[in-house]
């Protein structure tokens, strides 16, 4: 912008207009109707909380889903066999190499084999519950370093390395414990009960249920685990794996580790990140984002319309006063600016009050009492971007809501404004 | 100048009114209700525009001014006192008087000093910091006069300023206006219904049916 004496004059003029507008707003707020002020701020506070709370709970749900996928399902990175191969070979050597990579916390290998689980609670063939599932294996010592399933046992105990005739299963397979897919589960299998697993390769084994876990994450709770040694005896193979899970320290994005793994010689195997395995959960997060956008827009509209109504009523009530101000030589822009500032003030106080309520009450409350959702216990997650977006859009919407009615009234003829 | 209000049936509120007001003169506009007194005052104070004709104030042809320029002209050269005081209720008396000076960009200390002087002039120095709602009608009208004059207006327009006042307060306001005219050579144009107000005026313009009916020199 090129500054000329004229420009300077205009800027000084604008600065003075701002001063007068601020003066009018200050007096209108400090000496105006306190009930209207409190009510307006209360509504803007609720509108702001509505925007932030909804997006925070959505963020909390998304974040919980991602956390669950990484902590209880597939960890951060998964190495799968070369396309058209069934297993990753030389897996012990591979894990040793992977564990030397900077940023890798640990790795663990699993076998996966389809099988039919048969559960006969009365052992009398009268009420047999039978279903096909994917049976997985784990090395318990390694597994605890990459997933946290051991922390979610709701009954019984976690697997130990020497277990051969025992298995653990998620609640979605056992049934009970609030399972989401009760109808397709074993409908109430308990720890200590016996099940028969007919593996896809024709081998059949009897197992005792050693433990049942509930991570609240359906994908994780839809698994059955036997030990690695047991699965190797079933499959008749050794030092192989259907998948290798890698836990990283999260210091850099997973893609960076993939590059490093490729550089260290894992060229043909498929390397995926956890996000590739969450299937419908990924779609769910997109849906959450859409809902978040819709709710935020509605919240902003509610806040905007509320402020619009308050300013509209104020301008209508003061139409005569606005006419008088124009008659004594007040510029229209000063009057409009004063109403815009007034609206921005309402919004700012609403934001501050809302922020205090969120930080001081809602967040601590939801940390103490998280919401039970099908993906886990969800707390509020405040994302700075959402917060900034909420604040900026709330202020902008309020300013527009202050501008429109005041502009409409100031455009009126002075005589009409004063005498109607 | 003439003024016709549009609508289904256009109303000719002013018909070829031609008048001249000298500097320092206290002129009254009188006439029956609906004769066009207030309309004439609105035109003169640039609150409304004539349908035809022009108004020249202090050598400026106001018809040539834009809306923004008219606003600035009103602020710099004209003062207006309304029948119903028309003060801002959120402001105290002094702040109401300060407002035109603030709009003119005066520094805070300066506008407070000048406004306080003006409050003293209208005899309300001690009531300066009272909210207008705590003042009587007569006091409020004097605050309105102070506000209209604080920017050293060339012309003070007053639209029935004593209509809502009792005889005592009405006398105070009229005396004040006369005093301003005598001591500060303030030009005043005032619409009134009250014949006794003529004693304070230099001249009265009688309006009837939107036309200048007669002119009356007042002997004081």
Task: Explain the layout of strands and helices.
The complex is a heterodimer of chains A (420) and B (220).
Chain A (H helix, E strand, L loop, with lengths): L4 H27 L2 H40 L3 E4 L10 H9 L4 E7 L1 E8 L9 E10 L1 H7 L6 E4 L9 E5 H4 L19 E6 L4 E10 L10 E4 H8 L7 E6 L5 H10 L6 E4 L6 H38 L1 H9 L4 H37 L2 E3 L2 E3 L5 H27 L3 H6 L1
Parallel strand pairs in A: 4-9, 6-8
Antiparallel strand pairs in A: 1-10, 1-11, 2-10, 3-4, 3-7, 5-8, 6-9, 7-8, 12-13
Helix pairs in contact in A: 1-10, 2-8, 2-10, 2-11, 8-9, 8-10, 8-11, 10-11
Chain B lengths: L2 E3 L5 E4 L11 E5 L6 H8 L11 E2 L2 E2 L5 H11 E4 L11 H11 L4 H14 L15 H13 L5 E5 L7 H18 L2 E5 L11 E6 L2 E7 L3
Parallel strand pairs in B: 3-8, 3-9, 6-7, 7-8
Antiparallel strand pairs in B: 1-2, 4-5, 9-10
Strand content of chain A: 15-25%
Roughly how many Å is the radius of gyration of chain A? 32 Å
The span between the termini of chain A is 43 Å
Radius of gyration of chain B: 17 Å
Would you tell me the structural class of the helices and strands of chain B?
alpha/beta
Q: Which consecutive residue ranges of chain B, at least 5 long each, have pLDDT under 50?
A: none
Largest sheet of chain B: 6 strands, mixed
Mean of all residue-level pLDDT scores of chain B:
91
In DSSP terms, counting alpha (H) and pi (I) runs of 4 or more, how many helices of chain B? 6
Oligomer: heterodimer
Please give the number of β-strands of chain B.
Answer: 10
């Amino acid at each position: 912008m090129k500054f000329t004496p004229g420009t300077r004059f205009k800027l000084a003029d604008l600065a003075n207009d701002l001063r007068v507008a601020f003066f009018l707003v200050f007096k209108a707020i400090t000496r105006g109707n306190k009930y209207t002020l409190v009510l307006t701020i209360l509504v803007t506070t609720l509108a702001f909380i509505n925007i932030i709370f909804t997006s925070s709970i959505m963020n909390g749900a998304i974040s919980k889903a991602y956390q669950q996928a990484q902590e209880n399902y597939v960890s951060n990175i998964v190495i799968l066999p070369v396309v058209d191969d069934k297993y990753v070979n030389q897996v012990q050597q591979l894990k040793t190499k992977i564990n030397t990579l900077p940023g890798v916390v640990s790795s663990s290998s699993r076998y996966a084999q389809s099988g039919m689980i048969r559960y006969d609670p009365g052992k009398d063939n009268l009420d047999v519950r039978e279903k096909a599932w994917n049976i997985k294996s784990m090395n318990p010592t390694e597994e605890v370093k990459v997933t946290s399933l051991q922390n979610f046992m709701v009954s019984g105990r976690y697997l130990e390395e020497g277990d051969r005739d025992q298995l653990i299963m998620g609640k979605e397979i056992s049934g009970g414990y609030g399972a989401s897919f009760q109808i397709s589960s074993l409908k109430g299998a308990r720890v200590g009960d016996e099940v028969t697993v007919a593996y896809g390769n024709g081998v059949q084994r009897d197992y005792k249920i050693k433990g049942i876990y509930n991570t609240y994450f359906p994908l994780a709770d839809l698994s059955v685990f036997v030990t690695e040694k047991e699965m190797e005896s079933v499959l008749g193979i050794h030092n192989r794996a259907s998948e290798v899970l890698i836990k990283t320290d999260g210091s850099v994005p997973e893609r960076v580790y993939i590059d490093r793994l490729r550089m260290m010689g894992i060229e043909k195997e498929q390397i995926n990140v956890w996000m590739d395995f969450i299937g419908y959960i990924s779609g769910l997060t997109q849906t959450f984002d859409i809902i978040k956008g819709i709710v935020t827009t509605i919240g902003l509209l509610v806040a905007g319309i509320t402020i619009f109504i308050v300013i509209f009523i104020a301008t209508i009530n003061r139409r005569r006063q606005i006419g008088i101000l124009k008659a004594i030589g007040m510029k229209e822009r000063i009057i409009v600016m004063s109403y815009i500032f007034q609206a921005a003030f309402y919004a700012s106080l609403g934001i501050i009050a809302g922020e205090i309520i969120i930080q001081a009450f809602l967040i601590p409350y939801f940390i103490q009492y998280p919401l039970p959702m099908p993906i886990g216990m969800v707390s509020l997650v405040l994302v700075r971007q959402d917060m900034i977006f909420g604040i900026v859009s709330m202020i902008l919407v309020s300013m527009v809501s202050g501008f429109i009615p005041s502009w409409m009234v100031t455009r009126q003829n002075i005589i009409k404004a004063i005498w109607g | 100048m003439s003024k016709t209000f549009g609508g289904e049936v256009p109303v000719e509120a002013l018909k070829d009114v031609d008048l001249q007001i000298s500097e320092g003169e206290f002129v009254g506009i009188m006439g029956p209700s609906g004769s066009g007194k207030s309309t004439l005052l609105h035109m003169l104070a640039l609150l409304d525009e004539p349908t035809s004709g022009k108004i020249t104030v202090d050598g400026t042809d106001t018809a040539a001014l834009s809306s923004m320029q008219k606003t600035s002209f009103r602020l710099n050269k004209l003062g207006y006192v309304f029948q119903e005081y028309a003060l801002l209720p959120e402001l105290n008396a002094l702040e109401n008087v300060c407002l035109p000076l603030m709009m003119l960009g005066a520094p805070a200390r300066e506008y407070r000093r000048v406004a306080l002087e003006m409050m003293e002039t209208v005899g309300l120095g001690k009531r300066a910091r009272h909210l207008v709602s705590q003042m009587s009608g007569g006091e409020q009208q004097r605050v309105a006069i102070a506000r209209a004059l604080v920017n050293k207006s060339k012309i003070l327009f007053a639209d029935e300023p004593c209509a809502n006042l009792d005889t005592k307060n009405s006398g105070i306001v009229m005396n004040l206006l006369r005093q301003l005219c005598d001591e500060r050579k303030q030009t005043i144009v005032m619409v009134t219904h009250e014949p006794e107000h003529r004693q304070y005026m230099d001249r009265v313009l009688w309006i009837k049916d939107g036309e200048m009916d007669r002119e009356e020199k007042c002997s004081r």
